[in-house]
Amino acid sequence: MYRWKYPIPPQGCPAYTLITQRATNVRRVQRLPYAEARATFDDVCNWLTDLGIQYHNTRLHKYKTLLIDLANAEARGDYAHFENKSGTARGINGAFEAQELIRIHEGLRHEKHPQLVERLRRILQGHELFASDKSSGRDLSLELSVAARFAKHGHVIDFGHIADLSVMFHDTSVFVECKRLKSKNKVKVRIKDGLDQLHQRYRVYEPQGEARGLLVLSIGALFNGDLTLFEGSDARQLGRKVTGAVRDFVSKYRRYWEHVATDKRTIGVIIIFDTPAHTGGTLSTCQELDIHFQIDITQEDSALLHRIAPLFAPDF
């Protein structure tokens, strides 16, 4: 279910700007029936096999099995057997994580760079359950999900760069640093780390002064690390809950990227909140984004971010 009620704000808006859907942000609610998700996930698995990645002993294989069982339960209209066999929490976790891998596949399925293949191998590491994982694999999956948005629209990705993501966006080199925030005690440090890393990228880029950067913050683990279902009687109520979480984060932490001596070449901060959700009897993944323009960026940089922003919008 996609709705885009408001266009991208025109140039000349105040420095603090949000790309909007429901007046404040972008929301992408993915309602993917389990039978369809199973078929799509088969494409993901076949893609990895073609790249020479063995996934049968990884968490990916467990998600595939869960989706098969969920598709069968959906076809019967009876989830009792599935819940007894696998448990509701595992089912929600599997469906949620499978959706992220599907998004990565959508944008990167035509890429075969050796460094991409290595990153894909690493994201399959770690515990099956999101809440129990202490590895870096899911941090890399955030990087690849962002890369997929650019690659899907034909922009060239340098998978061998030291930055989390290096993109040639038309004629501008754009560096992206991605942080999956997990602890409220470390939010300030993690934001500072990301901004400092972008500054280091600019210092070594030639010609000097021409690269730009984005900081991407994933806050799902911060607000819903156990992957509890966000419940809503309808899409509107669900939207209010998800939007509220994002607004709480922005209100509390925006000073860490706005009121510091930020390098002006860092033109924006993108906040992503993914959560499993339940509304209208349907399990879905709800993804909400805030795209913030940094204070006092030039008109040219504002125009650049306006061109990048639609890559993060829902598909029509």
Question: What is the tally of helical segments?
Answer: 11
Tally the structural domains.
Answer: 1
Multimeric organization: single chain
Describe the sheet with the most strands.
Answer: 8 strands, mixed
Low-confidence stretches: 1-25
**Mean pLDDT over the residues:** 84
- Rg (C-alpha, Å): 19 Å
Beta-strand residue percentage? 15-25%
Shape: globular
How would you describe this structure in keywords?
globular; 8 strands; eight-stranded mixed β-sheet; alpha/beta; 316 residues
Topology:
Layout: E1 26-30, H1 34-50, H2 59-76, H3 80-85, H4 88-108, H5 114-123, H6 137-151, E2 156-157, E3 165-169, E4 172-180, H7 187-204, E5 212-218, H8 220-224, E6 230-232, H9 235-253, H10 255-258, E7 266-279, E8 282-293, H11 299-308
Parallel strand pairs: 4-5, 5-7, 6-7
Antiparallel strand pairs: 1-8, 2-3, 3-4, 7-8
Overview of this structure, please?
- With 316 residues, the chain is an alpha/beta fold.
- It has one domain.
- The protein has eleven helices and eight strands.
- The protein has helices at 34-50, 59-76, 80-85, 88-108, 114-123, 137-151, 187-204, 220-224, 235-253, 255-258, 299-308; strands at 26-30, 156-157, 165-169, 172-180, 212-218, 230-232, 266-279, 282-293.
- Strands 1, 2, 3, 4, 5, 6, 7 and 8 form an eight-stranded mixed beta sheet that branches.
- α5 crosses α6 (137-151).
- The N and C termini lie close together (10 Å).
